[in-house]
Amino acid sequence: QVQLVESGGGLVQPGGSLRLSCAASGIIFSIYHMSWYRQAPGKQRELVAAITRGGSTNYVDSVKGRFTISRDNAQNTVSLQMNSLKPEDTAVYYCNARSAFDGSRNYWGQGTQVTISS
Predict the structure, then answer these.
(1) Closest by Cα among 91, 90, 95 to 24
(2) What is the pLDDT of residue 43?
(3) DSSP letter string over 64-91?
(4) Exposed (0-12), middle (13-18) or buried (19+): which is 16, by Cβ within 10 Å?
(5) According to the model, what pLDDT value does residue 103 have?
(6) Residue 59 · residue 38 · CB < 8 Å
(7) Residue 42: per-residue pLDDT
(8) To 5 degrees, how large is the angle CA 33–CA 23–CA 84?
């Protein structure tokens, strides 16, 4: 059974930081591309950051320079370090795992709420 369990969300003031983590089980983590998505109320889910099985990263323009995605293949985890947070970063953040060899193997976590407010 595949599980992606996110943690680390919460309420922080603008300018603050949070670190999200996603623990994966039931998959061969090293062959999966890992991503973080977010969905704000009334908006579509959007890709925030991704890291390939090889470690290449990409980010949506709005978070470049503020967010950093990383992975630990030994611990089967992917993290998202979020700095200089803005109110517009408020959303539910979802972890995604997609196999590099079979696109149909695509899994989601349950999401973690991030709220940026003073």
Answers:
(1) 95
(2) 96
(3) TTTEEEEEETTTTEEEEEE-S--GGG-E
(4) middle
(5) 86
(6) no
(7) 94
(8) 80
Pull the structure tokens for residue 76: 């089967």
Tokens 């973690």 -> residue: 112
Distance separating alpha carbons of residues 25 and 115, to the nearest angstrom:
27
C-beta separation of 82 from 17 below 8 A: yes
**Tokens in use for 43?**
């908006």
What letter represents residue 57's amino acid? T
What averages of pLDDT result for each successive group of 10 residues across the chain (118 residues)? 96 98 96 97 97 97 98 98 98 97 94 97
Decide if 20 contacts 2 (C-beta within 8 A): no
